[in-house]
Amino acid sequence: MQNFIQQVMNGLVLGSVYALIALGLTMIYGVLGLINWAHGEVYMVGAFVGYILAVRMGLHYFVALVGAMLIMAVFGIVVERVVFLPLRGRPNMNVIIGTLGLSVFLLDGANLTMGPDPVRFPSIYTDQFIRILGISFTVQRLLVVVVTLVLIAVLRLFIKNHKLGKAMRACSQDLQAASLMGIEINHVAMITAAIAASLAAAAGTLIGPIFLVNPQMSIAAVGKAFAVTILGGLGNVEGAVVAGFTLGLAESLTVAYISSYLKEIVAFAILITTLILNPEGIFGKHSVEKV
Amino acid sequence: MIGTKTRALVALLLVASVLVSGLLVAGCSKAEKTEKEPIKIGVIGPFTGPNAKPGGRMREGIELAVEEINAKGGINGRKIVAIFEDDASQPAQSVAAAEKLTTRDEVLLVIGAYNSACVLAHMKVTEREKTPQINPIAVATAITESGNKYMFRNCATNPMQVSQLADYVLKNFNFQKFAMLFENTDYGRGIAEVFGPSVKRAGKQVVAEETYNIGDTDFYSQLTKIKNLGPDALLIGGNLTEGSQIARQARELGLNVQLLGLGGLSSPEFDQLCDGANEGLICTSYFELATDDPLVKKFVEAYQKKFGKPPEMFAAAAYEAVYIAEEAIKKAGEHKNLAEWRQAVRDALANIKDLPGVQGPTTFDEKGQADKKVYIVQWKNHEKVILYPTGK
Question: What is the pLDDT of residues B70-91, one digit of tens each?
Fold first, then answer.
């Protein structure tokens, strides 16, 4: 039983990681209609910003977390103006090349400035342990799950109730109609990019301390994030959250009760089965409610 | 892409530097007409790309050895010169490098490379050209098992390392249950395939065989499972990035068993990444700075003086390879015909017996594999304590 609880906890941590990264990806698709191939790199840059604020500048961990989210929100707006805006309404191939270019730029930029070797990103919570009922984890891991759930709740409230959130939903349903109704598309696009980048920064700053930080972390993260986004239905925020936790739990329980050899296989088998049965993802309706 | 451009630029600079050094050599020989032409040694290694860092260390080790040998008058009255060719860890590029070195530069002997995949690819070229090759770093077993008569390796292969670790642990500790967590690659599986049977032969148990993929960051699931099986020791069959996280996460989960590891986990980078989680970990090591061996002391001093930092295992292995080459070339004597000369050097290499080196004495077996002993070390308070061989 305690083995099971421990593995569920492990799965929840993994799931939070997947969900946080996938959220930004799915939001940008939902509102702007473009797949951002550079999202993994934005997550990586966010982790480095958190690392610089917390470790190099010695700020309190929570100050660094909020700081990284704010800095990356600005970064997201810049990216939207410089990269996404010129690509809006262009053929798919332009969008793919454009965001891939951004991804190469950010990855090589990080290699150049921060170096390719992984660094430790210790926070005050990485060496504090919680041991109850025979299970064991660090406070940092608990923090990952809790902060993720809080961010998801805030995001949900914002999208459902705030005026801008409603505007975002309108844009995701029909960009042209929304603009005819007087919605300032440019503002909505910038806000969406800012939220997506700051969620990625939160993910990087939360996850950095439990793992390591290096430029290559973007590549590892983005594969799973894409899987989660597709599993949850492209552009579907709730779907991304549910899919993230599903995948995290499936991986951890596979290792526990079957074999670690099968970890990736089970995760992708779930993905493929879902796509065969319901190509729109877990929450597939024919007209998906995006964002 | 930016990467390609930089690479092209670096390649251009390399070509330019080779040209310039060629001119310098030519200039020297004109000035001192009495001096004989230098002996050319080809070096293949990853001087750019993902392994540029260890490749650079390898290059430094070779530069130092060449400088030292030339300072005492060269070999048989002739200076030696090393010609470096970059393979960027790409097998195709390393084949091109081997072609250039053996046919255009007409080197007497080749040293290299870093990646097993590269050596496996280009050793066909050196074999075809009947050029002897010393491989100081690449550890794939197939390199010396393929029947290539021109290939010599002066480092312990994976199975050699793993069985030496297993022997040491089984002899010195009374562990009954072992767990293994290894990367799901040829490298990781190779470790498990030697360690597991060694444990079983000694009448002990392997209670867990878990795997992970390169680039994985979370090992809680595997470690939770291992913890429940209650082993006495855990073997980490992987490299330092994943290894450091396994060590740390094992401690976080309260899995306080003896940790075991291989080569990569003896590096200072591993210690930095672990930040204390490696305390007590026992692993193998090819090269240790803190020994009383006078050869090692001399090497460490000279390296520190030339490059301003202490050497590590790759520099040591490459440095040693140059001295093995020196010994063989000395024994082979002078030959007018390059093919005969290469053959004589190959035969001299095959007959090397107990040649002292910074990684211990070298004797090649009939497959060209040196019978190398590895160190067994233990991390204590960010320093390595040598457990074996003792009193050295």
Answer: 999 999 889 999 999 999 888 9
The band of A31, judged by pLDDT with boundaries at 50, 70 and 90, is confident
Q: Point out the residue among A129, A212, A251 whose CB comes nearest to the CB of B252.
A: A129
Chain B residues with CB-CB distance to A129 below 8 A? 252, 254
| Averaged pLDDT, B310-326 | 93
What are the strands of the beta sheet with B39-45, ordered from one edge? B80-86, B39-45, B109-112, B133-135, B151-153
Degrees, nearest 5: CA angle A134-A135-A139: 135
CB atoms B245 and A104 under 8 Å: no
Calculate the average pLDDT of chain B. 88
Average pLDDT value for residue range B98-115: 93
Cβ–Cβ below 8 Å for B211 and A6 = no
> Locate tokens 């800095």: which residue?
A71
DSSP assignment letter at B38: P
Average pLDDT over residues B2-6: 59
- Please determine, for the modelled complex, whether the ipTM score is greater than 0.95: no
The Cα-based distances of A88 to A82, A175, A176, A186, A281 in angstroms read 11, 11, 12, 11, 25
Contact A116 B3 (CB under 8 A): no
Nearest chain B Cα to A118, which residue? Answer: B241
The mean pLDDT of A23-31, rounded to a whole number, is: 89
DSSP code for A119? B
Q: Is B301's pLDDT higher than 80?
A: yes
Residue of A nearest to B212 (CA): A260
CA nearest neighbour of A3 among B300, B171, B221 = B221
> Residue A291's pLDDT is what?
53
pTM of the model: 0.77
Question: Going by DSSP bridges, is the β-strand pair B282-285/B258-261 parallel, antiparallel, or unpaired?
Answer: parallel
Predicted confidence band of residue B29 (pLDDT cuts 50, 70, 90): very low
- Report the helix count and the strand count for chain A, using DSSP H and E: 12, 2
- Interchain proximity A251–B215, CB inside 8 Å: no
| Rounded Cα gap, residues B2 and B12, in angstroms | 15
A264 contacts chain B (CB < 8 A): yes
Which residues in chain A (50-109) have CB-CB distances under 8 A to chain B?
104-105, 108
Calpha distance B287→B391 (Å, rounded): 16
Interface probe, candidates A260, A262, A268, chain B, greatest B C-beta count within 10 A: A260
Which residue is listed with tokens 């040591």? B316
3-class DSSP string for A150-191: HHHHHHHHHHHHCHHHHHHHHHHHCHHHHHHCCCCHHHHHHH
Using CA atoms, how far apart are residues B246 and B227, in angstroms rounded to an integer? 13
Determine the residue of chain B that is closest to A256 in CA distance.
Answer: B225
Amino acid at B136: P
Tokens matching residue B289: 């700075």
